[in-house]
Protein: Histidine decarboxylase
Amino acid sequence: MVGFLDTLVFLEQDNNESQDVDNLVSFEKDWDKNKVMLLSNQPHHLISNISYRAAKPKSEERDYKTKSFELAQVVRATCLEIDEPSSDSYLKDVLGKYTKKWLERTHHHLGATHDAGYPINSNFDYSVLGELNRFSINNVGDPFIEGGYGVQSRDFEIGVLDWFADLWEIKKDEYWGYITNGGSEGNLHGILVGREVFPEGILYTSKESHYSVFKAAFILRMKCIQIETLTSGEIDCNDLKKQLLQNKDKPAILNINIGTTVKGAIDNLDLAIQTLRDCGFSRDRFYIHCDGALSSIMLPFQDQVPRVTFKKSIDSISVSGHKFVGCPMPCGIQIARIEHMKELTNDHDYIATRDATITGSRNGHTPIFLWFALNRKGKQGIRTEVKQCLDNAEHLKERLKAMGASVMLNKASIIVVFERPPEKEFIKRWQLSCTGNIAHICVMPHVTSDKINEFVIELIEKRSTWYKDGGKQPPCVASDIGKENCVCPLHK
Amino acid sequence: MVGFLDTLVFLEQDNNESQDVDNLVSFEKDWDKNKVMLLSNQPHHLISNISYRAAKPKSEERDYKTKSFELAQVVRATCLEIDEPSSDSYLKDVLGKYTKKWLERTHHHLGATHDAGYPINSNFDYSVLGELNRFSINNVGDPFIEGGYGVQSRDFEIGVLDWFADLWEIKKDEYWGYITNGGSEGNLHGILVGREVFPEGILYTSKESHYSVFKAAFILRMKCIQIETLTSGEIDCNDLKKQLLQNKDKPAILNINIGTTVKGAIDNLDLAIQTLRDCGFSRDRFYIHCDGALSSIMLPFQDQVPRVTFKKSIDSISVSGHKFVGCPMPCGIQIARIEHMKELTNDHDYIATRDATITGSRNGHTPIFLWFALNRKGKQGIRTEVKQCLDNAEHLKERLKAMGASVMLNKASIIVVFERPPEKEFIKRWQLSCTGNIAHICVMPHVTSDKINEFVIELIEKRSTWYKDGGKQPPCVASDIGKENCVCPLHK
Structure:
C-alpha cells in the first residue's frame, strides 16, 4: 500500500522532539511487520530508525501511532534483477525503455540543477564521444604526476584545471587541483585541506550551506559551528563575528557559499574576510574554502557582481562540473593553493605512498567531456548562456509576481524561490525541489523561455483551481523570503 | 630536460632519513628556478617538498645536490589547453589521436588491474551504450530512496547490489549498499561505518594493505595500527594478536585484504576472527571491513578456497567494479550490514538531511554498465573467466620459472610476482607495476595466453642481453617472495 499524506509529524526516537518532515510525500506501512517505508521528494533525505505519528490521509480524525522502522527501501519494487545470461534483445529493450523515460523526465525537470541534456549540437557527429565508452580511462592518483596506467586523460584534465585556474585568477604554478566526482567530494577535499593546515581549526559555515559541508565536518571529525543567515540566505556576518569572538583561541576554517542550494544566495566574501580581520584573525590563522556550487562559474561572466578570486584571501574553491558546464555524469573541479598541499601530502606515519585526491582511481571520461564542452562553448558561449539564464530567471520571477504568487530572486542568481504549490502531483510532474513552504526553480540553460511559459500557464490554471473558493490560501513565506516578497493574505 | 636515473636517493626534509624512492624513473630539473619535476612509474606516488640528492645519469661521478621542490607537475608539457571556441574538426582530431594512443596502450598493459578494453562482443550493437552519454544520469543520495531528480538508474543499481549481496550471502533486507566511484571510496565508507559503530575503535590493517586504507584512517582521524605480514603478503595473525592484546580496552576495527595489491595475498579471515576471539574480543567489540579488491568477486567461483561471506563475522565489503566485471570508468560496490547504517545516519547535530553515501551526486552510468556486464556474462561466464585467468596465471608462472626467473603465485590469486626487469623501457612498454625489486602482472581476462606468450618471448630475449656477461645478476627477491621462490645467485 502506498499512500500520500498531507502532513507527517515525526518524533525523534531518542529526544522525543517533534519534527515536521515536510518532504516526505508518501509512505508504505506494514504495521504487522513493524515497518514503514517512506518516499521523499528531496534527493538528500535518508530516513532511518525514527519513531513517528502519522496523520491519517483524507480524514480529520488523527490516529497517532508510534513505531520505529528500518532504512527505507522504496525503489526495490521496480529494480532490475540480473537475469543472466541475458539475450541482447532483452538488454536493448530495457535500455530503450529507460531511454524513453529519461527523455520524458529530461523535458520536465525544472527543480534540479543538473543540465540533463548534454549540450551537443545536432550537427556534430555524436559517435566520437560515444566511442569513449570503449575505453577504461583512469586518471589514477595525482593529475600532475603521470601514472603507470597508460589509458588516461591527464592532458585533458590539466587543460580543464588551467581554464578554471584562469577564471578564478590563480597562476598555473600556484595552484593544485583535480577533477572530482562532484561538488560534495570537492567540499570534503577543501575542508580536509583546511583541517590539515589548521588541525585545531573550527569549521564555520552558514546553516543554509549544502549538507555536504556538514557531512564533511562529520567525516573529518571537526568541530563545526553553524552560522545564522539573512533572509536572502547569505551568511549573517554579525552572527559569524559573535561566534568567532567566542572561539578566538582556535584558527578558523570558513566555508563560503557561492550560491546556496535553495535560495542561490551568495555569501558576502569581502564582509566575511573583514569580519575575520575585525575579530583578530590574521591571514595565518584562517582558511577559506568556497563551495562554488552553481555561481562560482557564473559570476566571472557577470558585471557589477561580487568577485570570487584567488586575489582575495581564499584558499580553495570547488565547483560542480555537471551542472553549468555539462557532463553526462557527476563531476567537479577542485582548485587549491599549491602551498597548502604540502600539509596534505606530509608523511602520516603509515602512508607510504601519497595521493592528495580523495579517491585513488579516478574517472578519466569526465575531463574529456568537460574539455569538450568548454572548447565548444568557449568563454563567449558561457557568457551568452549566463545572460540568457539570468534573463529567463528574471522573466520567470515577473510572471510569478504577476499571477499573485510570493516570489524571490537573489541578485546574480538564477534560482527563483516561490510559494510551494499545494499539489504533490504538480510538484512531481515538474520535478520541483521543495523545502518547507517554498519551492525553487533553477533556471539552467535547458530551462528555456518556452518551457517557462508552459510551466507558468499550467501554474496559473492550477492556482485558479487550488485557491478558487477563497477557502484554501497560498502559504505564508515571510519567514523564508521576507515580508516584502510574501503576498499571503496576511502580508499582501 | 628529461632524464632517466638508475637511482635517486632522497632525504626527507624534516627527519633527514634517507629513502630510496625506487619508482621515480625520470625527472626534470631547473636548478635556477629551484625546481625539480619527477615522473613516477607508480600510479600512487605523490612527491612534494622533499630534499634529494641525485646521482647524475650516465656518469659514475656522483654529484649530490640538495634542493627542495614543489609538487611535481610533470604532464603539463603535453596538456591540452582549451583553445576556444574550437572547430568540430579540431576536436575530432584530438579525440582521434588519443583514441589511437589508448588502443595501443590497451594492447600492452599487463601490470594494471583495470580491464581496459570494455568487454563487448563485436556482434552487439554498441551504439545502445554509446547513447547513454546523451543523458546526465545521477543517482543522487541513497540508492534505496527515490530522489526528486528523474534521470536516474536506481533500478539498475539495486539489481547490481542484489547480485553482489547474493554472491556474498547476505539477504536483501539485511544489507545496505551503493555503487561507489571505486574501491578507495568503498574502503573509506566501510571504515567510516566501523568508526561510527565504535567511535573509540582502533583500525588494524596489514602493512601490505592498499594505501586507501591508510588514507581512510588519516581522513577519518582514526588511530591505525599496522600489522606485519607473512612472506605471502597475508596478515601475520601472531602480530595481530600481540597488538590486540596491547589494546584490549578499545574495540577493534579490522581491515581484511581479499587480495593485496602487489602480491594478491588473501588474508586468513577465519584465523583473524579466531585471533580476535582468543584475545577476548566478543562480537560486539569488533567490526570487520573487507577490502574486496580483486579477489572477493573471484573466490565464490573457485573451489577449495577460503570463503568470504556475510555468514561469517564480517560487517562490510567493498570491491572495485571496473576491474573484474568491467566498466569504462572507475566504480565499486559497497555492501554493509543494514543494522550498522543506523549509526551512520544518526543525528549529528548539524546534519539536517541525511545521506549515508560519501558523495551526494552519484554517477548513474556505472550501475548501467555493471548491470549490463553482469547480465551478459552471467555467473557462468564469470566462472569461466576466473578459471581462464587462474590457468593463465599458472601458465605465466611456469614460463617464468622455466626461464630461470624468481617468481611467486599465491593460491587462488591471479597476480604473478617476479623479479623486477632492470630496463625501464621494458617496464614502461608493458606497463608493469614495480615495487622495490619485484614486478607483478595481474592476469586479468584481457591478458590472454597470446599476450603472455608475446611477453614471455620478449622477456627471454631481453634477459639473455641483460644478464649475458654474468656481470649483472637478477635481483635477490628472497625477502619479498621467500627463499624458496628466489633463484638469485645466492639462493638458487
Remarks:
- Chain A has 13 helices and 17 strands.
- The mean pLDDT of chain A is 79.
- Residues 4-70 of chain A form one domain.
